[in-house]
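Lecture 7 notes: from sequence to structure.
We start with the chain below.
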Amino acid sequence: MSIFSRDKTETRGQKLTRLTMGAALTGMGILHFKPSSVPSFESIVPPWVPGTARQVVYVSGLAELVLGATLLGAPRARRLAGLGAAALFAAVFPANVYQYTHRIDIPGLIDSDAKRLRRLPMQIPMIAGALYIARKK
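Predicted structure tokens for the same chain:
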């Protein structure tokens, strides 16, 4: 059986979550390469992260694209892709903390302390959703 085949152990809820998360990750991954978006992503990369901010933006964008495409198109790889997405969401959390603690705005999107603070706990359901996708019976 191919990773592209239907996964008979996947529940309806897991499939819906997988496809939704796959689409969201793919969309966010694309934004990491959009020239007008790159500076916003670069601005929230903590200075202690290895590499240049641009490299981090491109690597994280590539990870989002690969994970998103895998979630969308390879149902039998959902365990690995779900675990990868959970790890990615945990790995980007320091950028959200850095954005909050350094009061970095992304104009028109995250441009207040309240919005930056609300963003922090959003990682929890994203990680939980990714782990839900990865769960096998």
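Points to note: Helices lie at 12-31, 38-43, 53-73, 78-101, 113-119, 123-134. Residues 12-134 form one domain.
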